[in-house]
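Predict the assembly for these three chains.
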Amino acid sequence: MSSEMTVWPSQSRDPAAPASAPVGKSENSSHHARIRVPRSVPRAVARGAAIVVVAALLVSLPLLVTDYVLSAILVPVLALALAGIGQNFITGYAGQLSVGSAAFMSVGAFATYDASSHLHGLPLLASFAFGGFVAGVVGLFFGLPSLRIRGFYLVVSTLAAQFFVVWLFTKVGWFSDYSASGVITAPKLSVAGFDLSSPGGHYWLSLFVVAPLTVLGRNLVRGRLGRSWMAVRDMETAAAVVGVRTEQAKLLAFGIGSFYCGVAGALWAFAYLGTVEPHGLDLDRSFQVLFIVILGGLGSIAGPFVGAAFVILFPVALDRLGSVLVGGSVDAGLLQNVEKIIFGALVILLLIKQPAGMARLLQIAWLRIGRWRPRQA
Amino acid sequence: MAFFFEVLIGGLLAGVMYTMVALGFVLIYKASGVFNFAQGSMVLFAALTLVTLLERGLALPWALAASAGVMLVVAVAIERVVLRPLVHAPPMALFLATLGLAFVLEGLAQLVYGTQVHGLELGISDAPIHGLPIEISKFDLFSAGVAAALVAAIGILFQTTRAGVGLRAVADDPLAAVAVGLDLSRLWAIAWGGAGLVALVAGLLWGARVGVQFSLSLVVLKALPVLIIGGFSSIGGVIAGGLIVGASEKLAEVYVGSHIGGGIESWFPYVLAVGFLLARPTGLFGERRVERV
Amino acid sequence: MLRSRVSTYASILSAALLASACRSNSENAAASGAAPTIASSGPVVGKEQYFPLQSYRVGPYAAGGSGFFGGFIDYMQLVNIRDGGVNGVKLTWSECETEYVVERGVECYERLKGGLNGAPVAAMNPLSVGIAYATIDRQTADKIPLITINHGRTDSTDGRVFPYVFPLSLNPYSEISAIINYIGEREGGLDHLSGKKIAVLYHGSPYGKETQPIAELLAKKYGFGVTHIEVPHPGTEQESQWLQIKRLAPNWIILRGWGIMNPVAIKTAAKIGFPVDHIIGNIWSNSEEDVIPAGPAAVGYIAITTHPSGRDFPVLSEVDKYVLSAGKGNMADPKRVGTGYYNLGINNGILNIEAVRVAQTKFGNVPLTGEQVRWGFEHINIDGNRLKELGAVGLLQPIKVTCQDHEGGGAVRFVQWDGTQFKRISDWVKADRALLRPIIEDSSTKYAKEKGLSIRDCDGEAKL
C-alpha cells in the first residue's frame, strides 16, 4: 500500500480514506520525480508494531486466560478455523463444492497417529506434516471427478469420501493399531524437548501450527494460484480460454485444501480431544465446517476464524445466559430446545442480513469506524 | 437363484421408500433451485404431529387431515419467512439457511412433542404374505402403492394443472416466467406446500416402518444419491434413481460386502453415483444445462 | 424489516412454548396436584458435594438421556430429603447439555470441573463412550473420577492402569460372555452349544465391533459357529442384513444395537420370519425406547439388563414417597419413572453416593475432593445385606470394586418384552470373568506402555 512515486496525488488506494485528506509534502512533489520517502512509512511502521503486539498477545495468552478458555475454547476454534481455511480454498476460492472436510480431517488424524506410532523418533511436527500430506493426496483423488462434473452434483464425490473414510477406519484395524475399540489415543505431546501436555502447551502447539499456515494461505490466495482459483470459480470456460490452467487449479485446490484439513484433523485429535473416533469426524462435522466457512464468509482467510468462534462460543454463551436468566425453574430439556431454536434462527437472520458472511459484516463495521473523523474546528 | 431375486426385490422395495423422501427435494429444487436440507426435519415434524394426534385419540383420517394442515402452514411459513428474504442470496447462503432451518425445526419438534419415542401402527401387517415364491409383505405392497399414487399425482399436477405447468416454467427459466406474468411467490408457496405434504406421506410410511423418533430425519441420507443419479429436478429420474440405488446397494452388500466385512451400504450408493456422473454429468434425467462462458 | 422478522420468530417461539407447557401440564395433572418444580440444580446452601451432569436432553438420544439423568437426580433428591444428605453433607448438581456430542461434553467438563459455589466435584457421569474417551486423560490429570456405568473402555476395568476410570457393574466383554452363558443354559448346558450357529448383528461403530474377539474366543471354546453382520449407522434400513441372516438360519441372534437400529432390527426380523424370542439384545438394546417403536413385532424379545425396569423395588417406593409426592420429581412424564433408563440412573446414583459414603469413612463427613471420592469408588463393597439396606435387591447386583477390578460386577439379568413391560425371566447370570481378565490386562498394559504410564502396585497400596 505504499506509494513510493506518486504520480497522481488524488489517487488513493485506501477506500476508507476520504477523498479530501490533507496531503503531505511528498504528494505535491510529483513533478520533481525524486524518490521520496513513502507517505505510508509511518503506516507501515504502525502496522508492523500492531502485528508484533498482536503476536505477543497471542503467544502470552496462556498467562492471561484460564485453562478452561485455553483447552475448551481456543484450541478447538484454532483447529476448526484451519479446517475452514482449507475448505475455503476448495469451495470459497475455487468454487468446487465439497462436503468432505471431516473425511480429510480424519485421514490427517489417523495418518499422523500411524506415523508417530510406527516411526519412533519422528518429531511431532513432522508427523503432522505427514498427516497433512496423506490427507492432501486423498483429497486430490476425490477431487478428480471435479474435472468432469460441475456444479452442485460435484458434492457427491466428497460425500462418497466422507462415508468411505468413516467405514474404512472403522473396518480396518491396522489404522487404529488394532485397538479393541477402534479409537486412537494421542501420545504424549512434545516438540523439541518441550513438554506440551498442559492446556497452555496444547494452545501453543495449535497456535504455532495454525499461524504460519494462515499466513501461507493468505499469500497463496493473493498470488497467482489464488487468482486462478477465483477465475475458475467465477468464469471457468472464459478462464480456460485465456490460458488459465483450470484443471491444475482445481486439483491444487483440493490437494492444498485437504492438506489444511488434514493438519486441522491432527490438531483436533492430538491437541484438543486427545482421541479420535471415526464417527466423531462424520458428515455432521463436515456440515459444521461448511457452516463455519459460509457463516464466516466465503472466499476469505479471516472468515473461518470468525465463523469458528461463533459456532463454538455461541452455544456456550446462550447456555450461560439461559441458566442465569431462568436457571433452575425451567425444565432443562425445554431450555436446551429453545436454545437450539434460537441458534438456528440467528443463523438464518445473519444470512438474511449479510449473505456474504460475518467477516464482511465486521469489515463494513471496521470501515465505518475508519471513516469516522472528528469535526473540524 | 431365488435368494438373488429376494435380495433384488427387497432392494427395489427399499428404493421405493428412498424415492418417497427424495420427492420432497425434487419439488423444492424444481421450483426454487434450493437444496432443502431441512426436508428430513420436515419428515420428522410431520410424523411427530401425526403420531401425537393419534395418541390423543384422533382417528387416522382426521389425524392425517390435521397433520396435512399443520404441514401446509409450516411449509408456507418457511417459504415466506426464510426463503423469500433470501431470494437473491448466493446458493451457498440458501443452503446454509436450510441447515439453520433444520435446527429450528428439530428444536421445535422436541420442544412441542417431547423426546419420547413412538410406535406407529397402521394396521397393515409387515409379515410376509404366504404363498408367494418371494417374501413380500402387505406393508411393502402398500408403501409401493402409495409411492406410485404420489408420483402419479405429482406427475398429473405438473402436466395438467396451471400451477404445475407454472412450476415447470419457473424451473426452466424464472425470468421468462415472471415476464409472462406468473406469480412466483404463489408458485413457490405451492411447491413448498407440496413438499410438506410429501414429507407427511414419507413420515407416515417410514414412521410405520421404523417408529417415530428423532433419528427418523436421518432417512434423507439415502435420498442424496437417489437425487444425484436421477437428477435433482426430474420426477422420473428420482424414481429410476431410487430403484437403482435400492437394488444395487442391497445386492452389493450381500454379494460383495459379506466378503470384505460388511457395511459397504453406507458408501456404495455414493460411489455408484460418482460413476454415473462421470459417464453422464447432468444425471440420468436431468436437464442439460448451458454453461455460461 | 428485520424487526418484523424477529417478531415473527418470537411469536412462533412463544406459540411453541405455550404448546409444550400445555403438554407437560396435562401430563403432570394426573400425577400430582402441585405444579411441577423441575429443577435443574440442587440446593445451594453452605458447602455441599457437587455432581456436574453432562446430560443430553436434546437430539437423537434424548429419550435415554432424560431418563438416565432424571433417575440420577431423583435419587440424589431422595438422599437429600430423606437422609439430609450423606452424613449431613447435602448433594448438589447442575446440568450442562452435551447433545451427545463429544466436544460439548469436553467443554462442559472443563466448565464445571472447578466446582459449584465452593462445593467440590465428586465424579463425572457423562453416559457417553465418545465423551468418556475424550476426557480420560483430562480427568486423570485433574484427579476427578470418570464413571462409565455399563460401558466405556473395556480395558479400563484394570484399575492399575486407569486409576480414575470406573466401568462399573458391566463391561462389554462381560456382556457377551454372560449372554453366551445364558444361551448355553437355554440349550441345556454349555456343552450343548457345539454345532449351533449364533449371529451377532452389530452397529457399525467401534462400540459395535468391540466384542468381536471375545465372541470368536468363546466360539472356539464351546464349538459354536459365530457370524458377525454389520449394520451401518444409523440402521434405518436392514433388509440386506436380515436376508443374509435368513440364509444363514442361526439358532440365536445377539443384537449389539444403538438407537433407531434396535426397533428396525426387531421389525425386520419379524418381516423375514425370524423368531423374535431368539434375539437377545445387549445392554444398549434393552430399554422401552428400543421396543415400543417396533410395536407388536417385539413381543417375546429378550434382552440383558443390570437394572430391571419396574417400580416394585423398595428404593423406588422411597423415591415415590419422598420425592415424587412432594412434586420434586425430575421426569416431565411421571409414567417414565421405573423404566429402563430411569432405573439405570437410580443404580448410578446408588453407586456414586455409596462411593461418597465409603470415602467419608476414611476422610470424614465433609465435602470431599475427587481424589478422595476415587478412593471411595475403589472400596465399594455392596453385598446382599447392603442391597437390602439400600432397598435395591434385584435392582442392583452385588458389586465389589477393587484396585485391580473397576467393574466390580459382571452379572446380568434377562428380561423379556410382553408388549407393555419387560418381565424378568432370570436371576443374575455371571460372565466368565476369569477367561476375560488376561485379555483385558493385555490391552491395558499395551496402553500403559504407549502412554508411558506406570502400573500401580495394588497390593503395595493396600498395605498403606
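The CA atoms of residues 18 and 223 of chain B lie 6 Å apart. The first helix of chain B runs from residue 2 to 32.
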